[in-house]
C-alpha cells in the first residue's frame, strides 16, 4: 500500500506494475519521442509499455513549465503521469482531463489544497495518488471515480472521510495515513474488494467503525501511531482474510484481544509500545511468520511460541528479557532473530546448535547456556 520512494524509481516501477497488466523483461523501448523527452527532462523518467506511454516528472530537478505541450500530441496513448515537487502544476491542473486513457495519476508534494473537480471526469482512472499535499477535504464527488482501485491521500490535512467513499466498490487499497481523521463512516464497509487499508498516524482517531468486519477481502490493516485509538471492534477477527496487522507506536499497554482470534495472521507488528506481557494465546497463531515486538517492556516470551513453527522473523530488541523459553528452538524456519539491548542472563542450551544452523541473520547473545 502503501511509501516514500527511498529509491524513488523502485516504487515508481511498483506503481507502474500495479497500473499495467504486465511488465515485460524485454529491452526498454526507445523512440524518437522518448529520446526527445529524456533530453528535455534528464532527471525525470519516461517509457512505453503495451503501446502506452508513462511519465514521471521531477519538478525539483527539471523545469516542468512546458510539460503539457511537450507530451500533448501523445495524449491519447498516455496511461500514467506522475508529478513530484512542482507546485506550479496548479496552473495547468485541468489539462489532465485531456488524457482520455489515463489510468494512473500521481501528484505528490505539489501543495495542492483540494482534489480538483476535473479529476472526477477521468473515467478510466484506477490509481490516484495525492500524498504530501495540503488537501483538507475529500469531495463527495470522489464516488464518480467508479473504476478506482488505489487511492492514496497520505500526509495531508484531511479531517473527514465522506460516506460517499463507500460507493467506490472497485477500491482495493486505501491509504490515508498522516492526517487528522477523527472517525470513519460506516459506509467504508461497502468496499467489498478492499484488501489494503492504512489509517496510520491519525492521532485524533478514537474509534473504528463496528462494521469494519464486513471487509471480507481485507488482508492488511495498518493502525500505527493512532495513539488515541484505544477501542477495537471485538468482531475484527471475523475478517478471515486478514494476514497483516500493524499496531506500532500506539502507546498500547496490552495487545488487543481480537488479535488472538486471527488464526490466519502471518505478520504481527507491535513495536514501540508499552507492552509488558505476551499471553500464551500467541501459540494459537500457528500461521504466524513474522513477529515484531521491539522497544516494549517485555520481561518474558511465553513457551507457547514454540507452536509458531512457521515463524521466520522474531524481533525483540530493546526489552527487558533475561532469557527465552527452550521451545524457541522449535522455530526451525527462522531467518531473522533480533535480540539486542536486553539484559540477557542465560539462554536455552539448544540455542547454539539450532540457531547457528537455522538462523541466518540476527544476533545470538553471548551468555550462559542452561
From TrEMBL:
PROSITE patterns (alphabetical): LRR
InterPro entries: Leu-rich_rpt, Leu-rich_rpt_typical-subtyp, LRR_dom_sf, LRR_domain-containing, LRR_R13L4/SHOC2-like
Keyword Repeat belongs to the record: yes
SMART domains found in the cross-reference section: LRR_BAC, LRR_TYP
Keyword Acyltransferase carried by entry: no
Domain of life: Bacteria
Listed SUPFAM superfamilies: L domain-like
Keyword terms: Leucine-rich repeat, Repeat
Annotated ranges, domain Disease resistance R13L4/SHOC-2-like LRR: 89-194
A cellular-component GO term for this protein: cytoplasm
The name this protein goes by in its record: Leucine-rich repeat protein
Amino acid at each position: 500500500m502503501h511509501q516514500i520512494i527511498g529509491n524513488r524509481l523502485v516504487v515508481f516501477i511498483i506503481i507502474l506494475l500495479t497500473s499495467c497488466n504486465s511488465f515485460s523483461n524485454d529491452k526498454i523501448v526507445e523512440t524518437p519521442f522518448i529520446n526527445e523527452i529524456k533530453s528535455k527532462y534528464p532527471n525525470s523518467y519516461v517509457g512505453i509499455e503495451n503501446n502506452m506511454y508513462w511519465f514521471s516528472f521531477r519538478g525539483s530537478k527539471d523545469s516542468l513549465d512546458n510539460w503539457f505541450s511537450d507530451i500533448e500530441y501523445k495524449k491519447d496513448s498516455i496511461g500514467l503521469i506522475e508529478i513530484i515537487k512542482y507546485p506550479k502544476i496548479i496552473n495547468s491542473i485541468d489539462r489532465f482531463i485531456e488524457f482520455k486513457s489515463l489510468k494512473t495519476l500521481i501528484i505528490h508534494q505539489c501543495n495542492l489544497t483540494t482534489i480538483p473537480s476535473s479529476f472526477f471526469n477521468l473515467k478510466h482512472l484506477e490509481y490516484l495518488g495525492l500524498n504530501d499535499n495540503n488537501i483538507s477535504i475529500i469531495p463527495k464527488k470522489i464516488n464518480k471515480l467508479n473504476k478506482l482501485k488505489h487511492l492514496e491521500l497520505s500526509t495531508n490535512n484531511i479531517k473527514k472521510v465522506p460516506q460517499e467513499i463507500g460507493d467506490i466498490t472497485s477500491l482495493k487499497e486505501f491509504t490515508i495515513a498522516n492526517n487528522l481523521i477523527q472517525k470513519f463512516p460506516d459506509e467504508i464497509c461497502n468496499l467489498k474488494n478492499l484488501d489494503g487499508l492504512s489509517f496510520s498516524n491519525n492521532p485524533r482517531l478514537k474509534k473504528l467503525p463496528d462494521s469494519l468486519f464486513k471487509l471480507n477481502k481485507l488482508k492488511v490493516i495498518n493502525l500505527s501511531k493512532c495513539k488515541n485509538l484505544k477501542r477495537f471492534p471485538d468482531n475484527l477477527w471475523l475478517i478471515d482474510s486478514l494476514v497483516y496487522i500493524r499496531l506500532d507506536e500506539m502507546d498500547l499497554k496490552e495487545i488487543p484481544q481480537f488479535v488472538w482470534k486471527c488464526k490466519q495472521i502471518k505478520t504481527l507488528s507491535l513495536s514501540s509500545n508499552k507492552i509488558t506481557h505476551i499471553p500464551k494465546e500467541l501459540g494459537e497463531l500457528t500461521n504466524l511468520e513474522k513477529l515484531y515486538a521491539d522497544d516494549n517492556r517485555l520481561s518474558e516470551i511465553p513457551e507457547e511460541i514454540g507452536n509458531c513453527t512457521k515463524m521466520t522473523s522474531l524481533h525483540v530488541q530493546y526489552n527487558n528479557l533475561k532469557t527465552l523459553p527452550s521451545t524457541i528452538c522449535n522455530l526451525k524456519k527462522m531467518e531473522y532473530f533480533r535480540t539486542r539491548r536486553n539484559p540477557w542472563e542465560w539462554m536455552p542450551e539448544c540455542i547454539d546448535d539450532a540457531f547457528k544452523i537455522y538462523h541466518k541473520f540476527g544476533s545470538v547473545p553471548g551468555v550462559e547456556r542452561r
